[in-house]
Write a structure and sequence with these properties.
alpha+beta, Aminoglycoside 3'-phosphotransferase, Chain: A, domain 2
Amino acid sequence: MRAELEAQFARIPLLENKLLAEFTITPLPGYTNRNFRLHNRQHDWVLRIPQPKTDRFIDRAAEATNQARASDLGIAPQPSWRDATGLTLTPTLVPSRSVTPADFSDEATLRSIVAAVRELHFSGVRFEGRVDLESLLSRYYSMLSQPLQHQYRHRFRAARELIPQLEDRDRDYVPSHNDLVLENLLLGQDRLWLIDWEFSTMASPYWDLATLCNSAGLDYRQSLQLLGVYCAAGEQMEESLLFDYRNLLQLLGDCWMAALVND
C-alpha cells in the first residue's frame, strides 16, 4: 500500500511535495474506491483511489459535472483536486458521521435526510445522463457468471416485465444521487451532506427514496413515514411505485455487488 500511495501523491499537485510520514493515514470503507483519510495539523483530506475496472459502471466525467452542480446547491462537498480517472482529494467533513438505521426513527433527523433529497430533486438542476432501467439491468446481469445468471434468472425475468410498467406510471425524472446508501449520507453539525456522486444522473425520484428504504432496512410503516415526509408540501406519490422500485433496486444492487466481487 505504501508504494501505491506514494505513486498517488506524485500525481496530485497538492501532495506531490509531501511525504507519507507527514500524515496520519486511516483507511476508510468503500466498494468502488479505496479511500484514505490524510490528517495532520495543517491538512485533513480524503484521498479516493478508484478501483480497477470501475469505468464499466461509472461515467467519471458525468460524476464530476453532477457533483459540482450538487456542490453549488450546498449538499455535496467539492473536491480540492480530481482527474479524469476519478482520483480525488477532498476536504474531510468534520465533525460528521454516517447516517444509521436508527436515525430514521428520529423525526428531526429523518426530516434533515429528506430535506437534502428534496433540495436535490426540486432544484431544477439538470444532471448529465439519464437512467435507462432496461439497459442498466441487462448490462449488470450480463456481467454475472453463468452460475449466477442461472441463480438470478427468475428475479431478472420478473424485473424485465416490471420495468415497462414503471416507466408508464412514472415519467418525471429529476436530478438524482442514485446511490443513497447510508455510508453516503454524512450528518454534520448544521447540515446533511451527500457524498460519492459516481452513479448520479437524471432518474425517477422513487430511485433515491427506495434506496434509502433498502439501505436502512425500513419496514412498511417506516417506508410510508419517509414517503409522507417527502410529500409534506403536497406532492402526489404512489406507495406501490416505491415498493416496486425497492424490489427492482434490490436486484440491481445484488447483480452489481456480485459482478464486482466475482470479477
